[in-house]
Amino acid sequence: MAINGRIFSSLFSLLFRIIIAASLSSQNQVYVVYFGEHSGEKALHEIEETHHSYLSSVKETEDEARASLLYSYKHSINGFAAVLSPAQASKLAEMEEVVSVFPSHPRKHKMHTTRSWEFVGLEEEVKSQLQSEKSGSLLARAKYGRNVIVGLLDSGFWPESKSFSDEEMGRIPKSWKGICQTGDAFNSSHCNRKVIGARYYLKAYEKYYGTLNTTLDYRSPRDKDGHGTHTTSTVGGQMVPDVAFMNSFARGTASGGAPLVHLAAYKVCWATPGQDKVDGNTCFDADMLAAIDDAIHDGVHVLSISIGTKKPTAYYEDGIAIGALHAVKQNIVVACSAGNEGPGAGTLSNPAPWIITVGASSLDRKFVAPVVLGSGLRLEGETTTPYKLENKMYPLVYAGDMSLPNVSQAVAGQCLANTLSSEKAKGKIVLCLRGNGTRVGKGIEVKRAGGVGYILGNSPANGQEIVADPHVLPATAVGANEAIQILKYINSTKYPMANIIPARTVVHTTPAPFMASFTSRGPNVIDPTILKPDITGPGLNILAAWTGEDSPTRLGADDRKVEWNIFSGTSMSCPHIAAAAALLKAIHPTWSSAAIRSALITSAGLENNNGTLITDASGKHADPFQFGAGHFRPTKAADPGLVYDASYTDYLTYLCGLGIIIADLSFKCPQVAPKTNDLNYPSLAIPKLNGNVTITRTVTNVGKAKSTYLASVRPPMRYHVKISPSMLSFKHRGEKKSFKITIEKEKDTMLSKKIEEGAYEFGWFSWSDGIHTVRSPMAVSSA
Ligand SMILES: *[C@@H]1O[C@H](CO)[C@@H](O)[C@H](O)[C@H]1NC(C)=O
Ligand SMILES: *[C@@H]1O[C@H](CO)[C@@H](O)[C@H](O)[C@H]1NC(C)=O
Ligand SMILES: *[C@@H]1O[C@H](CO)[C@@H](O)[C@H](O)[C@H]1NC(C)=O
Ligand SMILES: *[C@@H]1O[C@H](CO)[C@@H](O)[C@H](O)[C@H]1NC(C)=O
Ligand SMILES: *[C@@H]1O[C@H](CO)[C@@H](O)[C@H](O)[C@H]1NC(C)=O
Ligand SMILES: *[C@@H]1O[C@H](CO)[C@@H](O)[C@H](O)[C@H]1NC(C)=O
Ligand SMILES: *[C@@H]1O[C@H](CO)[C@@H](O)[C@H](O)[C@H]1NC(C)=O
């Protein structure tokens, strides 16, 4: 008997009703009611009428139905967002035409906070563009991204930033259908040939939080937060020479990765009322879906979405996953951040295989500011604080010993607000430990209490990773080992003394890159047969444009203003990958989004600048659950040799394997449900292997017409991997060849340790023709 879409869909809505029941609250809230694609040509008003009739069928009156409708998604995505009771939502979920109904989740958009392009090898190229164009370089070949349009879902942008000037920008592509939506402090003159489109979406936000407080944010595409300006300029900001953070650090030419792309800002993230800005923005699924639907219609080629979830979300109630699938149907490349929820396992967001999921790693740059102790000991520290102490020794104290009478030593030791005694701390350098409270906020407390200098010490949980912050007084930050050494020194002497050497920027530091401890990790808990993240890019201490109206730390108590800022997060690495995708799109305009993703993945690098495998922040070897295939190498990605291609239909077939229908209810699943592992993905994840498994992959020759590739394997420990055939010969470009990979667990012997159940082992397989190495990571665990 044929298993058709209907069976899948009813199975699916059953699954869904359970979910609704589980998250049942009596409160009315915004739900997304999702129908998949639009079938046939319909006028926009007809679509809205259809949506309205669904709503009317669960609402008491027509007026109530009209009043409850927030969005009617009309272009690619078929669905609407409306205020519903849980009972109304369940009723809609049961209807045959409905794919899913899910609450419009609020998502936090939290940041952990020049050199990126040089570091990934576009270095000479960025410089040479300022002098003369060097032909043959990736940037030159890609014409710096000319004619490619990248859309960002974020907090908007700051139009006055030099990054968004339209000097030397080409004409706006004729295909562009976007608009420049006016609003607070924003009119059509704020778009230009660089930022060609700008829109904003806040209906779901306002249903949740009430009318936007315009003291907190602009009701327009103008960015109040800084995040959107930072990510937008990272993708495609103009080259702006001689830029530095707080006039002191990371001086150089600021440039987007694809400096001549056109940009389009879709503002979907807004200030969270009642929270300090440092705690991040909030973005809602219903608003994001509206933005993606417009972005597809407007004609973007690449979407960069630096928005994650705290908890992994099933595809069918994940607005980004749903929107991205519709985007991919139009061949739009979608890059998303993996999230900042590391270092725990299984923490990553945005795991759908039609998305490029991006982890974060370091650059080879530090902002060095050592501490010198009275004993003569010099300890490494880092900061982007421009303020300096005099060249003499100052009394050094531990904040825990400076507490107010009503405060415990442990609490004062973390320098929380109003915990330090000014009588005790005045004139001293104060050591505070991480824990509760923000890193910069602790310095504000030291300053309030009259301290002259501030040392931020990592707690053991933070290890040796330092996020360089611009503190409000002379300061530096040290790793956990150094913090203990300072505490020991304070204990060891009657008059502990210290100085903090003013910070300076140092490049070519080793080892680099290393994985940021905050970067979210695999395994992919939504579908463990898809290896995620896909790739890593720079996300630690990244300099990019800022609003100029805002403090570098986003703390309410910090009233400094900067036009350039250094921030960290997978939010910062995602736009690097989006920029690389834009360059590839410019060079290979006919490639599918899967081919572009494959090129980026299979060309990624595994080594740091010390020539060893990329490590984590503590110096241990990192693995594909942290970096995916490795660190991106855009120049190599432009000429990958072979690609693992996949079509929109392939994704729908893949979803059949999961028993899920997303975009197309009429899609006929194959009679035998496919294995999810069979999606032609450029990496491999096999959870709970029992005995052996054989998987098929197909590569397409995009290199030389006549070429021969040989397979090689680095099997995961205690597994055998066989590739057959082990040689592929191509006669022309575009030719496809399939091969099989068989993975088998080693027999346990007396000597070998039993393979630990559920523990992942990692390996690689690759195809090489002597010029290209097309490498895929694999992750395997045993049943
Ligand atoms: C747009 O706003 C600017 C001020 O920011 C103003 O100078 C300009 O005249 C306005 N342009 C239009 C078309 O309204
Ligand atoms: C808007 O935000 C400002 C700044 O936080 C606050 O002082 C004000 O009370 C808020 N207004 C409303 C109506 O909530
Ligand atoms: C401790 O007492 C002081 C007043 O002496 C007050 O300002 C401060 O807020 C208190 N701190 C805490 C943490 O309770
Ligand atoms: C941080 O605050 C939480 C909640 O008040 C508390 O449970 C935890 O122990 C604190 N952490 C530290 C390191 O003091
Ligand atoms: C410093 O001395 C205090 C009290 O004498 C003790 O509790 C603490 O563990 C010592 N710290 C270090 C790092 O030796
Ligand atoms: C990396 O290489 C540099 C210079 O070659 C060396 O000084 C350093 O110790 C190495 N670091 C590690 C972690 O191996
Ligand atoms: C794989 O397992 C099957 C039975 O589960 C067995 O018949 C077959 O020989 C195995 N293949 C290999 C390559 O070991």
UniProtKB/TrEMBL annotation:
One of its GO terms (molecular function) is serine-type endopeptidase activity. PROSITE patterns: SUBTILASE (PS51892), SUBTILASE_SER (PS00138). InterPro entries: PA_domain, Peptidase_S8/S53_dom, Peptidase_S8/S53_dom_sf, Peptidase_S8_Ser-AS, Peptidase_S8_subtilisin-rel, Peptidases_S8_3, S8pro/Inhibitor_I9, S8pro/Inhibitor_I9_sf. Keywords: Hydrolase, Protease, Serine protease, Signal. The keyword Hydrolase applies. Gene3D superfamilies: 2.60.40.2310, 3.50.30.30, Peptidase S8 propeptide/proteinase inhibitor I9, Peptidase S8/S53 domain. Belongs to the peptidase S8 family. This is Subtilisin-like protease SBT5.6. The lineage of its organism: Eukaryota, Viridiplantae, Streptophyta, Embryophyta, Tracheophyta.
